[in-house]
Amino acid sequence: MLSGRSAVVTGGAQGIGLAIARALVAQGARVVIGDLNEAVARQAVEDLGGDSFARFSLCDVRDGAMVERLLDTAEEAFGPVDIFVNNAGLTRDATLRKMSEEDFDAVVDVHLKGTWNGVRAAAARMRERKAGSIVNISSMAGKVGNIGQTNYSAAKAGIVGLTKAAAKELAYRGIRVNAVQPGFIATPMTETMPEHVKQQKMAEIPMNRVGTAAEVANVVVFLASDMSSYMTGAVLEVAGGRFM
Ligand code: NAP
């Protein structure tokens, strides 16, 4: 489905990002991972089949110049970028009473500013070729809001607004911008969640199980591919029916 396409995945060293990179490669794309975690990302490149299939570029998505270098690396390795996935993320959970301003800024910076950096830089290059697909990873937290996640819920809801605004701006240049809202997915990010929080989330899921990173990745592949050629500004939930 993606033979010959050049793709970038931020935060692709592990978890959902790595699953997305794996699914893109499986469909014929070549992927550059932009991540902070160099050791884990280099291992990911090996897992994806080595240099012919994937590369790594050290990237903090909060830094616009590093995002530009990430795109340069992808262009040099695999040609002009067709697919850009804004996936990098982190959590700093606490109730409003306990959350520091630093915790709020850190989460908003990585998710919202990072996604804006990615959309802006990728779109500037894609518009010259009048083609491209950008996929932003939001969260169900951005739809319903989670206790202890005022920072994360705000950032993930912000990504929805950003996705729709960018989709409207870029449609006439042949660039599509869509978002995915995963629910409760088994990754290193959710591994450390307290047991009572996990149980509470499970009770809300009609399909009665956690999702896998591969199940999120399949939807990203769909949005990245021509299978979704008439879709832009869409927000697809991958949550086992939770909060439908
Ligand atoms: P993860 O396992 O923690 O992976 C996130 C990756 O992003 C890590 O490799 C991390 O590197 C990297 N990263 C963090 N800050 C970065 C930055 N400033 N610049 C570049 N890379 C950075 O998380 P995940 O569960 O796969 O989540 C991936 C995305 O899905 C996130 O946007 C998350 O919010 C979203 N999501 C996850 C779930 C879920 O249930 N897991 C649900 C909804 C949405 P370090 O390890 O060095 O920090």
Describe it.
By secondary structure, this protein is α/β, with parallel strands linked by helices. It has a single domain, classed as NAD(P)-binding Rossmann-like Domain (Rossmann fold, 3-Layer(aba) Sandwich). The protein is built from 9 helices and 7 strands, in the order E-H-E-H-E-H-E-H-E-H-H-E-H-H-H-E. It has a 7-stranded parallel beta sheet with strand order 3-2-1-4-5-6-7, sandwiched between helices. Helix 1 crosses helix 9 and helix 3 runs parallel beside helix 4. NADP nicotinamide-adenine-dinucleotide phosphate binds next to helix 1, helix 4 and helix 7.
What secondary-structure arrangement, pairings included, does this model have?
Elements: E1 6-10, H1 15-26, E2 30-35, H2 38-47, E3 54-58, H3 64-78, E4 83-86, H4 101-129, E5 132-137, H5 141-144, H6 150-170, E6 175-182, H7 188-191, H8 195-203, H9 213-224, E7 235-238
Parallel strand pairs: 1-2, 1-4, 2-3, 4-5, 5-6, 6-7
Helix pairs in contact: 1-9, 3-4, 4-6
NADP nicotinamide-adenine-dinucleotide phosphate binds near residues 13, 60, 87, 88 and 190.
